[in-house]
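Work through this:
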Amino acid sequence: QVQLVESGGGLVQAGGSLRLSCVASGRTFGRYSMGWFRQAPGKERELVAAVTWGGSTYYAQFVKGRFTISNDNAKNSVFLQMNSLKPEDTAVYYCATSPYSAGALPRDWNYWGQGAQVTVSS
């Protein structure tokens, strides 16, 4: 059974930085994508950034230039470096993984972590 465990969330002031980490275990498929979604209260879950096994990346427009996704295949890990944080980035951030490539919708992804709260104060 695939398990994803996120860490690194917290409270930060606007303009600050946080780094989220996610470690996967129990994954048996050799080619996969890993991504970060977020969900703010009353809003739908949305894709923030994703990276494929080969290193191709995708960023939502609202985080381009501020967030960086990276992965360490040897450690089954994915990271999200978040800089220049804004109050509107406040949300629960979820790590997700799926075989091969996955789409931009939550239903396209097979496995999810429990979520990490990120709160940005103004």
In short: The longest strand covers residues 91-99. The chain has a mean pLDDT of 94.
